[in-house]
Design brief:
Layout: E1 32-37, H1 44-64, E2 71-76, H2 84-92, E3 97-101, H3 106-119, E4 123-125, E5 141-143, H4 148-160, E6 168-172, H5 176-189, E7 193-198, H6 207-216, E8 220-224, H7 227-239, E9 245-248, H8 255-261, H9 263-266, E10 270-273, H10 282-290, H11 298-314, H12 319-328, E11 330-334, E12 337-340, E13 353-358, E14 361-369
Parallel strand pairs: 1-2, 1-3, 3-4, 4-5, 6-7, 6-8, 8-9, 9-10
Antiparallel strand pairs: 10-13, 11-12, 13-14
Helix pairs in contact: 1-10, 1-11, 2-3, 4-5, 7-8, 11-12
Amino acid sequence: MSLSVTACGSDDDGGSSSGGGGGDDSAFCGKNLAFLGAETGDAGALGLNMVGGIKLALDEWNKDHSDCQINLKEFDSQGSPDKAPALATQIVNDDSIFGLVGPGFSGESLATGKTFYEQGLPSISPSATNVTITEQGWITWHRIIGNDAAQGAADATYLTGTAGATKVFVIDDGQDYSKGLANVVKDSLGDAVGGEDQITVGQTDMSAVVTQVKASGADAVFYGGYYAEAGLLVKQLRQGGFDGTFMSGDGAEDPAFVDAAGADAAEGAVLSAPAAPAPADFNDKYKAVNGSDAGLYSTQAYDCTNIFLAAVEDGASTAEELNDFIGSYSNDDGASGPISFDDKGDITSSTIYAYFVKDGKLDTANPEPIE
C-alpha cells in the first residue's frame, strides 16, 4: 500500500468520510486488517485478548457481509520495540492490509509510529498508553484507551485517598509504558513518595528492592510494569514482611498476575485499568468465537475493529477517507465505553477503575471507578 501522508489526517473539526457507497462496494472488501502486538512472551496473554476481540468483530461482520469479507493478519512482536519495526515494514509493504489494530504496547508504538505515519496507514491502538505517543504529530495514530496521565493521577489519588497511604515506594521495569505510568504516579504523589527503584524485565530476584522498601518505611508500593514481574515482586514483598498496599497498573491487570504471585501473596492487590468490565453478553459471544474468556483489552480491540468496519460500511475507499472517518467517529455505546477522539488521536474521555484480588482470584466483574 503506497499512500501519501499528506492525504491522511484527522482534522481539528473532525472531518467525515466522503464515501457513502456502502460496505459491499468498498475498495477494502476482500482485504485485511492487521494486528501488531505480543502473542507470545511475558505479555502474550494481553495480546491474545486483543486478537480475540478483533476476531469477534470480524466474525460478526463477515456473517452479515458475504460479498465483503475482511480478515486478519497477525504480527507477533512479543511486545518488543526491537522486534516491531521489521514487522511494521512488512505491514506497510503488504497491499492487502488497509488498517492496523495496534500496536498493542507503548514501546513498540513509539518504535513504529513514524513508519505507519509516513506510509499513511491508519491505526487504532486498544492499549498503548504512553502519553508521548500522541505528541509526535502522527496524525494516522489513534488510541481507544485513556493514557498514562489519566491513569497515573487516578492511581495516586487511590493510594493516598482510599488506601490511606502516607509513604509510597514507586518501582518500574524501565520500559516506555512502565516508566511513563510510574513517573505520572510519582509526580502526582508529590511529598508522599517514599522512595523509588527500577528492576529489569525478566528479573526474578527482587531481594534488593524488597530491602529498600522495608527500610523506607513505606506503607504502599506502586509498580509500573507487566504481570510477570508484578506477581514475583508482590510475592517476595510479602515473604519479606511487607504488609502494606500493593498497586499496579493495567499491564498487570490479568489473572496471570495471581498465577505469578500465588493466591496468598496476591490477595488484596489493587490493579488499575482505564477499562470497564465487558458488557454482560460480551463474554458469551467472545467465547463462542475464540473458545476462551475475554480479558483486558478484548472490548477495546473489538471496538477498534468495528470503527474500521463502520468506515467500510460508510463507503470509505481510500486511506484519507478512512483516517478522516476515524477522526470524526463518535459512539456513546461502544463495548469498552463512549468513544470519540481529539485532534491528536487520544480518546476524549476515560474512566479509571480499580480491580481487586479477592479470595485468591482477580475480580474482573466488580471494579470501583476511581474518582
